[in-house]
Amino acid sequence: MRNSKAYWICQLSGWGLYGLFSLIISGIFQGASALNLKLLQFNALFAGLMVLFTHLLRLHLKRRQWLSLPLSGLLLRLLPALLLLAIVSQLVMWLAMVYVVHLYTMEQTSFAAYWGYVFYCYIILLLWASLYVSVSLFRQRQQQAIDRWKLEASLKETELQALRTQINPHFMFNSLNNIRSLVCEDPEKARQMITNLSELLRYGLQYTQQERVPLARELEVVESYLLLESVQLEERLVYTFEVDEEVLQVEVPPMSVQLLVENAIKHGISRLPQGGTIYIKAHVQEGQLQIEVVNTGQLAAEPKPDTGIGLNNASERLRLLFGRSTLQLLNKTPDTVSASFAVPLALQV
C-alpha cells in the first residue's frame, strides 16, 4: 500500500510538473500571448496521456514480470514497447490538437512534424522507463537482501532447533539406553543403532547450514531417526515410505521432512497406548513435489504453546525459499493427522 501511494504521488506530481514546465517554455519561446487556454489544454492533455500510458506500461511490466529478466531480455522487450507507446500517444495527441483543442488544422500539420513529436515523446518515455526500472530494481534488490537475511536467520534457528531436538536429554538417554541393552543381546544391531545416531547428529551439524538438500538425503536421515525410535517403541511404531523414484533428487529444505516425522511421533504415536503407523509420501502433482506425512492420531483441540514453533519456522523457510508457504497440518480422517508441504519444481536449479 505504501509503495502504491508513493508511486502515484511521483507519477502525478512528475507529469504535472512536466506539463507546467512545457507551458512555461512555450511562453518563453512563443511570447506571453501564447499562454492561452488552448495551449494549456494541450499540455494538460499531454501530461494526462503520459500518466495513462506509462501506468499501462507499468502494469504490463509487472504482469509479464519483465523486471525479473536479464538486462538484454528486458531491453529487447522494453524499447519496442516504448516506441509503440510513443507512436500511439502522439497519434492521439495529433487528433486531439486538430479535432478537440483546435490548436492546428489538418493543413497546418505534417507527417514530418508528427514523427518529430514521436521521437521527442520516445525520448521522454525512455527517461521515464529508465527512472522507473532503476528504482524498481533497487527496491527489488533491497527486498531480496531482506529475504536473504531472514532466510539466514531461519536457517540458524532451524540448526539450533535441530541440535536441541537431536541432543535432547530424553532422546539421547533413551537411544543410548536402548543401544546399551542391545550390546549383549544383538551386537550387530547395537552397532547399527550407533551408526544411525551418529548419522543423525552429523546431519544436524552439517546440512542445516544449507538452504536445500536432495530429498534422497533427507529421507536417509528420516529412516535413521525412525530406526532409533523403533527400538524404543518396538511394535507400537510402524512406518512406510511411499516415494516416487523420480523425485529423489528434488531439493528440499533440510530437516523439513524430519520435522514432520518427529512431530508425528512426539505428538501422535508415542501418546497412543497401542501405537500407530506413519506414512511418508512424496510424489509429483501439478508441477510440484508434494510431501505428506500421515500418522495415527488426532490434533489436540488446544495445542501447547511450544507445539507449533518448529512448524512455524519451517513454514517461514518455505515462504522465503519458494515465495509462498504451503505447509499444512490438519485432521485427514477421524483417526489420522496429515502434515504436508509442496516444493515448486519450476524453481529447482
From TrEMBL:
Keyword Hydrolase: no
Listed transmembrane segments: 12-33, 39-57, 78-102, 114-138
The keyword Cytoplasm appears for this protein: no
Domain of life: Bacteria
Keyword line: Kinase, Membrane, Transferase, Transmembrane, Transmembrane helix
One Pfam match: His_kinase
The name this protein goes by in its record: Sensor histidine kinase
SUPFAM superfamilies tied to this protein: ATPase domain of HSP90 chaperone/DNA topoisomerase II/histidine kinase
Family matches, as InterPro entries: Bact_2-comp_sensor_kinase, HATPase_C_sf, Sig_transdc_His_kin_internal
UniProt organism field: Pontibacter rugosus
EC number: 2.7.13.3
Single annotated GO MF: protein histidine kinase activity
Source species taxonomy: Bacteria, Pseudomonadati, Bacteroidota, Cytophagia, Cytophagales
